[in-house]
């Protein structure tokens, strides 16, 4: 049965202030530049994207990308990915007995040593909580205002907590009502705290269907489609598989597509945990066609020819995610919606993945498919947190010792066992304590009543090689930057010709919006903004830039005022750069935008 090939040419929520103290697919030809070849009868669709260059980029010097510290590759470590690498999934031969034994020994040693490492971190995190716990207990036992009342949204938190409690009681009693926005919930009651995006979508009157996407190097990754059940019916399961049968939509839908991409050790469920204030749900209710992309492995590692016990299944880092995962997700969304472009919004690692993909040595032709890229807490330059003792320990390990400590498979797999088997509430509390200790985050601006839910979608499986890329001896933390050594970044290009050779981004790079957390110690978003707006990047087009001084790394997703400071602005940037506004529904809050 012949396959269909998708070829891409290279070319208003209520204001919150701090307290004082889809459519159904229709038939028509896909608009250019897609080329669709179909057999006379029977259709089997491939879901990965083949990016065919149609114009030459300027001669350039190869970008210095931190190499992986995973299992040694058969090909040289290089930033450049060939067309053959992108077009064909690799064939894997049978591993020899010696290699299998070696990998099993590394797996055993890394499980034990990484468990000890994690245990040390958890113990230190719990010890660090003793003083604030004692202070909190003191305030509760004395007739004075508890210090929680100093939280910037304390009154709003208490109001929302009471509203959720009353709504749960009403749901249990069988009372149903239609919300003002017209989105009728189909789930309710007490929060079950489950790792299920569909469940939380239904609690706000939306729904979710899951698509399986195959990357060109053989991974099966998940793509979640958020939709309004009043105007769209979920497709059958066989139509949502990695290689599916049935017609593609041929007229672009009336809702412009938006793809969201998550951060490190998270899934895209992180965009769905704040009820109506969630970025995914607010964009969907505003009128966008929202898709949530998940990178390889995630909660359920799958590959077309490798098993999870095979070290070769884990031989990847962010370069493969940029080269294979992101193009595959974009291709599937465009194929399903009939549009030729989409808006992309990403957080943290998702921004690094995107910035690498669009750079001149990776997949710059993907730019033709993106109308705008919204970067939330952009991770292009390292912040001071990478110099903390536990990160410094990881950054000084030679590659051989890294493999002994963290292996050549999934990174600290015991975390996934805890996620699967631990009770949700204790797990959520412990997850916050550990992540806060590691990264210096606080929940001061979050709705604390939803905090346990926020940690239901983390962590996920990632490779030891990916973590080595971020934190290892030759990785991001050491280099200080995703695409070159940060120490080289202060060098001012001598002339225009030199600029073209050293710029990260070529002509045609999509419009960019940046939301920078001013109190983020993990990454330095201001440094990226400075570069993009300087003469070093003549082809970068920044259409929106905002520094939020009080925000920490996750506040762009979970702060209670993020709907006003982030979500609405993301919606406007995507709409202002949308190339087909005349044929799309105007999103709520974007009326009158030019």
TrEMBL record:
InterPro entries: AB_hydrolase_fold (IPR029058), AB_hydrolase_lipase (IPR006693). GO terms for biological process: lipid metabolic process. The keyword Nucleotide-binding does not apply. Residues 19-29 have a biased composition (Basic and acidic residues). Gene3D superfamilies: alpha/beta hydrolase. It comes from the Eukaryota. The chain crosses the membrane at residues 115-141. The keyword Membrane applies. Residues 197-274 form the Partial AB-hydrolase lipase domain. Keywords: Membrane, Transmembrane, Transmembrane helix. Residues 1-29 are annotated as: Disordered. Residues 1-18 have a biased composition (Low complexity). This is Partial AB-hydrolase lipase domain-containing protein. It comes from Thielaviopsis punctulata.
């Amino acid at each position: 049965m012949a396959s269909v090939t998708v070829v891409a040419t290279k070319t208003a929520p209520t204001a919150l202030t701090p307290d004082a103290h889809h459519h159904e697919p229709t038939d028509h030809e896909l608009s250019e530049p897609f080329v669709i070849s179909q057999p006379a009868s029977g259709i089997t669709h491939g879901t990965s994207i083949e990016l065919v260059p149609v114009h030459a980029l300027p001669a350039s010097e190869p970008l210095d990308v931190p190499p992986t510290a995973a299992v040694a590759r058969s090909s040289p470590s290089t930033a450049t990915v060939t067309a053959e690498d992108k077009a064909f999934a690799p064939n894997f031969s049978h591993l020899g007995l010696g290699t299998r034994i070696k990998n099993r020994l590394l797996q055993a040693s890394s499980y034990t040593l990484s468990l000890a490492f994690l245990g040390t971190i958890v113990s230190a995190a719990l010890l660090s909580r003793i003083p604030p716990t004692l202070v909190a207990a003191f305030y509760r036992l004395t007739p004075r205002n508890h210090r929680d009342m100093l939280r910037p949204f304390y009154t709003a938190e208490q109001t929302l907590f009471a509203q959720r409690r009353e709504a749960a009681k009403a749901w249990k009693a069988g009372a149903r009502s239609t919300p003002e926005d017209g989105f009728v919930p189909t789930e309710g009651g007490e929060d079950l705290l489950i790792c299920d995006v569909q469940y939380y979508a239904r609690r706000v009157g939306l729904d979710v269907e899951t698509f399986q996407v195959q990357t060109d190097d053989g991974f099966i990754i998940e793509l979640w489609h958020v939709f309004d059940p009043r105007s769209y019916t979920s497709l059958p399961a066989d139509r949502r598989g990695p290689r599916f049968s049935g017609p593609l939509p041929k007229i672009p839908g009336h809702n412009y597509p938006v793809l969201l991409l998550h951060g490190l050790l998270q899934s895209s469920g992180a965009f769905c945990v704040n009820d109506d204030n969630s970025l995914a749900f607010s964009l969907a209710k505003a009128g966008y066609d929202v898709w949530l992309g998940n990178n390889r492995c995630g909660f359920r590692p799958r590959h077309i020819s490798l098993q999870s016990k095979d070290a070769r299944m884990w031989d990847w880092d962010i370069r493969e995610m940029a080269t294979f995962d992101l193009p595959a997700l974009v291709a599937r969304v465009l194929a399903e919606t009939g549009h030729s472009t989409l808006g992309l919004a990403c957080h943290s690692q998702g921004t690094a993945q995107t910035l690498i993909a669009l750079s001149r040595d990776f997949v710059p032709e993907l730019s033709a498919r993106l109308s705008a890229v919204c970067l939330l807490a952009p991770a292009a330059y390292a912040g001071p947190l990478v110099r903390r003792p536990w990160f410094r320990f990881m950054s000084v390990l030679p590659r051989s010792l890294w493999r002994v400590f963290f292996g050549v498979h999934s990174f600290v797999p015991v975390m996934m066992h805890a996620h699967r088997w631990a009770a949700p509430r204790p797990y959520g509390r412990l997850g916050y304590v550990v992540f806060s200790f590691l990264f210096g985050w606080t929940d001061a601006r979050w709705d604390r009543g939803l905090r346990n839910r926020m940690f239901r979608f983390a962590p996920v499986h990632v490779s030891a090689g990916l973590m080595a890329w971020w934190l290892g001896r030759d990785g991001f933390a050491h280099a200080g930057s995703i695409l070159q050594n940060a120490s080289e970044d202060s060098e001012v290009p001598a002339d225009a010709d030199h600029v073209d050779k050293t710029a990260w981004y070529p002509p045609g790079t999509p419009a960019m919006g940046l939301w920078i957390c001013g109190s983020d110690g993990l990454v330095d978003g201001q440094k990226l903004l400075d570069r993009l707006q300087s003469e070093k990047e003549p082809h970068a087009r920044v259409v929106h830039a905002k520094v939020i001084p009080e925000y920490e790394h996750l506040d762009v997703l979970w702060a209670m005022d993020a709907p006003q400071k982030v979500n609405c602005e993301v919606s406007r940037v995507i709409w202002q750069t949308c190339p087909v506004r005349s044929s799309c529904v105007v999103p709520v809050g974007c009326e009158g935008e030019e």
